[in-house]
Amino acid sequence: MRSIWNGAISFGLVSIPIKLVNATENHSIHFRQIHLADGGRIRYRKVCELDEEEVAGGEIGKAYEDADGTMIPITDEDLAQLPLPTAKTIEIVAFVPADQIDPLQMDAAYYLSANGVPAAKPYTLLREALKRSNKVAVAKYALRGRERLGMLRVVDDVIAMHGLLWPDEIRAPEGVAPEGDVTVRDAELDLADALMDTLGEVDMDSLHDDYREAVEELIAAKASGETVRPAESGDAGGGKVIDLIAALENSVQAAKKSRGEEGAGAEGQGDGEMADVHPIKKTSGKSSPQPTKKSTAAAKKSPAAAKKSTPKSTGAKKSTSTTKKSTAKKTATKKQTSSSGGSGTKKTASSRKRTSA
């Protein structure tokens, strides 16, 4: 890695030659400005306001603009004459616990590399002393024309330095907190704790920039002439929370589902989907149950069923009349039989009388 600054760490009377190397890099995708009419690139040129001519870099100097607009030239020689003991030195001024450093002060990060073989021993001494003390070193250093504040700590086997903002560069959070008194119930805190436990920890190395990957895919698709399909817009989640308890419960269930834990579905939801949170509407009275589609369809079918059952009842009437007719015939036959039997008896009696005479 290329060094951006060479100097030394001042550790009491011990001087440790070091090189300053950037510990971070920016992976953001940068765009150029173009002329929409012909695609030509737009460039910025440094032009003097007085003669409106372009000025080369070697002819450009520094100046401080006064309140009335007056320009006060400041040369590099002027700055070099200033008493700046940290111009080439990282001067350690104290060792403090790491929790005394406000994270709001954190700025750029650098690696400190031992510059040459003679620097290896004092470099290792400072590194091991920081490890054993469980403290960080607060130091002053100068970079890019100004004095800065830094924090030295150990990362693996390397001493790293975080640039710190000066305390007076941190703004007070005035007017940022919610206005008025807000009360949080214990049940809400319990659900928030449950959500935190469910989300748990994460491997920081697994996190990546999804937006940058999407931009890279977009550029590759347009470069190859492919049609770019618009991405599905998700719920931004910027709406007003109606029921905080329900939102927390749904968040816990969703977190469990995403991690594949058992029993992730909410009670009463077999598929485990997250229930929507809606405001509760008050009603003046009980509403009568609405008829379902099935009952309506059954009601429509009932007249046809009644028509179909009508012929059956007519047939039953016919069979009844037929039965009545057959019964009458049987009755008449019996009467004829009985009448015919009586006449036969009378004839037999008369014939017997004739025989006896």
Please explain how this structure is put together.
The chain has 357 residues and is α+β, with helices and mostly antiparallel strands. It contains 6 helices and 9 strands; from the N terminus they run ββββαββαβββαααα. A 7-stranded mixed β-barrel has the order 1-2-6-9-8-7-5. It has a two-stranded antiparallel ribbon with strand order 3-4. Strand 3 and strand 4 form a beta hairpin. Helix 3 runs parallel beside helix 5. The longest helix has 64 residues. The chain is extended. It starts with a strand and ends with a helix.
In short:
The protein is an alpha+beta fold. It is built from six helices and nine strands. Mean pLDDT is 77; it is low at 264-357.
Q: How confident is the prediction overall: mean pLDDT?
A: 77
What is the N-to-C succession of helices and strands? EEEEHEEHEEEHHHH
Q: Helix- and strand-based class?
A: alpha+beta
Overall geometry comes to extended
Q: How is the biggest beta sheet arranged? A: 7 strands, mixed, barrel
Helix content: 25-40%
Helix count? 6
The CA-CA distance between the termini, in Å, is 165 Å
Counted beta strands: 9
Main sheet strand line-up? 1-2-6-9-8-7-5
Which blocks of ≥5 consecutive residues have pLDDT under 50? 264-357
What radius of gyration results from the CA coordinates? 50 Å
